[in-house]
Design brief:
37% of the residues lie in helices and 14% in strands. By secondary structure, the protein is an alpha+beta fold. The protein has three domains: 107 residues, no CATH class; 220 residues, Nucleotidyltransferase, domain 5, CATH 3.30.420; 74 residues, no CATH class. The strands form two sheets. Strands 1, 2, 3, 4, 5 and 6 form a six-stranded mixed β-sheet that branches. A three-stranded antiparallel β-sheet has the order 7-8-9. The longest helix is centred in the last third of the chain and has 33 residues.
Length: 441
């Protein structure tokens, strides 16, 4: 049975009786109201009024995990010991120093947050309750305070992380995968049956692990920084472009985000992604992947056709009947360019010059709503690199690059907690700035 609820004001009154108000962690965690977690997690506990009353409230357990990351810890085993030995951490979490949770309690709580009956392979149903808490308490608060505006710019990207398992797993004689129709790397001989083998372009090697896929948006007052909107955890063998439609639909349908600019790198350069973004009312800003070119004529970085000598073809209008663009040899089509450019090996001997065409319907990758290569396009795309700071803070600074855990649930929960901490810091900073302006006025 659930213990009596405690308001956020009551938590703050008890906290500041034992902790200084200028405490580094207290200034952040005291700004985050987690009282709604009590109602969202009611179904974890028995409704029997005659049952034993639970020792800890769900909002205190979640707050304690956030304090763990704010204090610089990434291991729950070490955090349980610190809670027991350091009264400061216990008060910050909302516990009494003489009565702190065990590792078994945190494992039970995180399993319920993620969902016990969820399909691990269905990324759309993973951790729905945890995502609801993340959006309700953190993302919506950041939007309300004007820290972010998800309706302006959205950036997607992903990264690969290793699982705490055998990285060079090979089935041996005792492995019965083939006899039992079990997929490779999915049997009990592998220490992490949910991990898959994928290629990490940053490390330039194959690894056994997972792929973390993020959707972020820049800060309104500081576009050089970003905050996460949502995320998915998939296998390491899943390419970023395969997760993009799921991110788009989740943001549009579940989070009610009206897209304006969707900024992606060349890994997302696929026709169906352009189609999805345009269908949902957004403007795709995606770098061209030369290996994904579907036209026989080579193109430059802006998607303009280039002749074998490296010169951009001269634009010669639109063929409205066949709905295609016409391009001519620049030396034959323009007298000014003929004086400036040199060509040792002409494409053809015709006085008209070589002619190529690009089709309008087939080339939405090249001819986007924001003209590719324009100054506006360059300025918007320059924001894409900001997502690297989110991935770097999430993966490198919080124990996800070299984890000591395995399984989809653990990676999902840890990623969610780190994203919550990123929002918590931004919210605390914004509220502190508002209080300072009020005091000055």
């Amino acid at each position: 049975m659930l213990p009596p609820n405690q308001s956020h004001l009551a938590y703050k009154l008890i906290l500041f009786q034992h902790i200084r108000q200028n405490d580094r962690i207290a200034k952040v965690i005291s700004r985050i109201d987690l009282s709604c977690v009590y109602d969202l997690c009611k179904h974890f506990y028995s409704p029997n009024p005659w049952g034993r009353v639970a020792e800890y409230r769900p909002q205190d357990a979640l707050r304690s995990l956030l304090v763990m990351y704010l204090a610089g810890f990434t291991s729950i085993n070490k955090w349980v010991k610190e809670l027991r030995d350091t009264s400061r951490y216990a008060y910050l979490s909302g516990f009494h120093p003489d009565k702190t949770p065990s590792k078994a309690y945190f494992s039970w709580f995180l399993s319920n947050l993620f969902g016990k009956d969820m399909d691990i392979d269905d990324i759309m149903t993973q951790g729905t309750l945890l995502k609801k808490i993340f959006e309700t308490v953190f993302v919506n608060k950041s939007v309300e305070l004007g820290i972010i505006d998800p309706h302006d710019k959205v950036i997607f990207d992903g990264c690969k992380v290793k699982s705490f398992c055998k990285q060079k797993y090979k089935p041996d004689k005792s492995c019965r995968c083939s006899h039992n129709s079990i997929k490779p790397l999915k049997c009990s001989m592998c220490t992490d049956s949910e991990a898959t083998r994928g290629y990490d372009h940053n490390l330039d090697e194959y690894l056994m692990g997972y792929g973390l896929h993020f959707a972020v948006t820049p800060l309104v007052d500081n576009p050089s920084k970003c905050l996460p909107l949502t995320f998915f955890v998939a296998g390491a063998d899943v390419h970023d472009s395969k997760v993009a439609p799921h991110l788009l639909m989740y943001l549009y349908h579940d989070m009610k985000v009206d897209f304006n600019y969707v900024i992606l790198d060349s890994g997302y350069d696929a026709f169906y992604i352009y189609w999805w973004i345009c269908l949902l009312g957004g403007k795709p800003i995606i770098a061209i992947n030369p290996r994904n070119s579907q036209t026989p004529t080579s193109e430059n970085e802006y998607g303009l056709p280039v002749c074998p000598s490296g010169h951009v073809y001269y634009y010669w209008g639109v063929d409205k009947k066949k709905r295609r663009y016409k391009w001519r040899c620049p030396l034959k089509a323009s007298k000014k360019l003929a004086k400036k450019l040199k060509c040792d090996k002409p494409c053809c001997d015709s006085s008209y010059g070589k002619t190529v065409y690009t089709h309008i319907e087939d080339d939405i990758r090249w001819f986007t709503q924001i003209p590719r290569g324009s100054q506006l396009w360059k300025d918007i795309y320059s924001r894409r690199a900001r997502i690297e700071s989110v991935i770097g803070d999430t993966v490198l600074n919080n124990g996800l690059k070299t984890p000591l855990f395995r399984g989809t649930k653990n990676f999902f929960v840890r990623t969610a907690l780190v994203c919550m901490v990123q929002h918590a810091k931004a919210i605390a900073e914004a509220l502190e700035s508002i209080d300072y302006q009020k005091n000055v006025a």
